[in-house]
Records
---
Amino acid sequence: MLQKKMVLTLYHDLESFLKSEDFENDLKENLEISHPNYLKNLERRKKDMQKSDHAIVVAGETSAGKSTLINKILGKRIFKGDNLESTGTICKIRNSERIALSVEHMSGEKEVKDLTDTCDLETKEGIENLRKTLNDLTNMTDSKKSVQLKSVDIGFPVPFLKGDTILVDTPGIGGSGDVAQKVMEYLPNAVSFVFVINVGSAGGMQNDRLPKILKSLVILGIQNEMPCFDPKDVLFVTNKWDTITSCDSDSEEEDRQKEKTWKDVKCKIEKQWCAVQQKNIFKMSLKEVNTFQFSIDLSMR
């Protein structure tokens, strides 16, 4: 927090100097040539520093396995998975000593529920109570209320989410509503971006869905709106490999089919996101993973 205040003070002092009469005109002209709109960009960076939350954003197609991935990361089955479009609301998970939900309505109205006494996450019953409460608020197949909510903020002990870092679960791309717009609200100040892909769906990449998000990311980068993570650090989790089976019982043929799909999906990812690193493309069947250790660099700027 002290470092953040120091950086904000530096931004303020620099901005004051650049606007002052002491800043020589010839230097100002050279700066405008080398860094057009420098004052506007400086203002963006200052506002960015003032934001309280820094998100690890998890996105992907409908039913790709985003909620399952987050459950594995948290080590608890907090979210209910569904084969249909399930998560209809942005869910933000943050580290908190107490277990509480903060619900934000589309109108901007907020309500807070303290669940510490009824949701002991060290017990199976407590986890089930929290999961049911979240499901009632966010699952579009079970509840119509989720459509009316902008976001649900979930607080409980998550030690790896240090400081103001939050984990964001987003609605599936390709479902109802403008999901891309919802996701984009969190990307400018994100510290990491994870995209989950269902390899059992059209070879793993829906051409009319994934490019929309990735194109928006590129535009943000061009506009200097996304300073928090490097494009080459974006993570792609390819999921549901257990659904790829051969039409016959030949295991060798099934292996060849999976290898072909793997090459195809990597090629499509590289085409849509040229900055991707091979080491950041993961291959797994999340439902078959018992304990999932997912290391993310949470260092602040």
---
Amino acid sequence: MSSSELQYIIELSGQRLLAVPNTGNRTPTSNRLQTLRDRAHAWFKFDMHSFKTISLPEDLYAKKKLVTDGHLYLRDEGGDLATIIPILPKPSQRTIERYWSAGTLCLVPYSTTLDVLMDPAQNLIAIVYSVPDEDDPLESNEMVSIDLRTLDGDSVHPEAAGRTLIVSGPAGYDDNVDRIETMCAKLKGCGRHIALQRTLVVDGTGDRPESVCHLQIWDWKNSTISSSVLSDTVPYPFEDSIDFCFLGNNRLLVVTDYLKLYSIEDVSQTPQFLACFQAPLPLSDVQCHLPVDDIEHSSSQLQMQTQQTMHTSDPTHRLLCFTSSYPTTLVFIISTRIFFDLDGIVATTPIPWDFWGPSNTRVFRYPYLCKVHVSGNRVLQAFTVGAPDTCPTEYDVHMMDFSPLAVPNRQGLGRVVKEPSTIQVTVLTSDSEENLKITTSLPYVEVISDRKFNVRELEGIWLDKDRIYLFNANWDCDAVGSLQYLTSQSSRLEVIDV
């Protein structure tokens, strides 16, 4: 109790943080300890009424919205428009502001943009696009590539091995295939890694087209080609039935009805299969939520923040969140420690849910809409409330802290949840239905905001180490005959400092 150094080490471990070495920061350890405790306590008295508001252009419409590394990223997938805006930047932060009008995002003629990755921390924009076959443009066979550029300009990224990453097609299909077409694509990055997941339709192989999930990973700083490929046929319907996320800079998790863990330390070969974790029920419309800005930063960004940064999140003790919307909205909060402590686990044998799931997980079930975001060991959830059999009109916002020191740091605030919780889910099969009970017990502390949000206005929530971000849009409804159309009147981003 008399050693500030020892208490600081314990506090770091309890909050699942790692000290950043060689920062040159001469702040006394006792002051660092107090700052760490004060920042942890601040989350339990967060005031959703104290915010700064950033008004956005009235004509701004975006189907895809994301806050990453202190920037708001917006993209209209149909019109191929994109915007990135810095949000109340800090003095040491590099900021980027760009607007891409139609036809300027991808400069390759006759191309279709499939997805875009923006990484302000590394000044990187990656654009995956498809181009029709020049020899037979009426057919759906395509060439897919990934363009790498600097985010603040159109030059080749200085750390990239080349301007274009070469995307391979699915193996095992010959020239008799009539059509290979990308139906949807997801592009994600983590440090030196970029991964592209595509859902493909392959026609001409039998009585009906096949659906293929094709995942390829590059070390974009060292090579434009990659042999790190995972490919498998998937059942119909296939849209959004599979998702993936990075766990640190050397592991990848693919989520279907199983959680398959791979090592990607060497992308010159197929990812090494490490373990398979069984889910408690069949999943559909899976979406993984794991912020990349909380995983790995570039060396240049760490150098810029060296005087201010004293600790960082522990990659082996974070939270992974994924959602499934069928048969009801389920939110899975999972401690990533289970994916790093693999002693005694045999890769070829799926690990039953009852063996790994209940003690490492909390599962929440919501009958209506839900929004969720994670950062480190904290979870921000907004879910609808209202009487049964009525259309929900408001969101409640909950903050949850799953770190081991959440209870002592809360100083009497919040609700401590240690006891197991059970949800019931009805699973439909082709000829019957089954009622499943899922019990989980990962401890947490929860605080509920007294402010409620309109369901039609709140379109996105995000969380990082210092702030909460709320994207709100006010909508007008225009009627044309018997049809009604929603038109955006104005949008705003609320920023809550903690």
---
Amino acid sequence: MWMMGQHRCYWMLDPEQKVGLVFGPLAETKYGSNTTLRQSINGNLGDPYQTLLREGTTALLNSYTSTQFVYQPVDVVRRLNWALADGSMQQVLMAALRFIKANSGQAGNTTCKFSVCT
């Protein structure tokens, strides 16, 4: 939903902002200095690290948009970096799965209820 033009007004961060600036140096090292938030949402579905970034970015946007979202923005950044710092594929996948559950409303929160931007 974040990539749909009619919901662009909900972005609390610039879609062209660099991932490294938002998530920090570990993310910049892993994903490169030129990767934007917009690009991160379109990440490769088959790559666990890209899935972590895509779901982490979505969770960050959800955390800024909804007070009922299960994570606060700082929690999203911390969890993504923890998974990257750990270095194990298991932690990357577990963090991505937690973000997926949170983003879909399975973690006890409500899902986003966007209306069309005016």
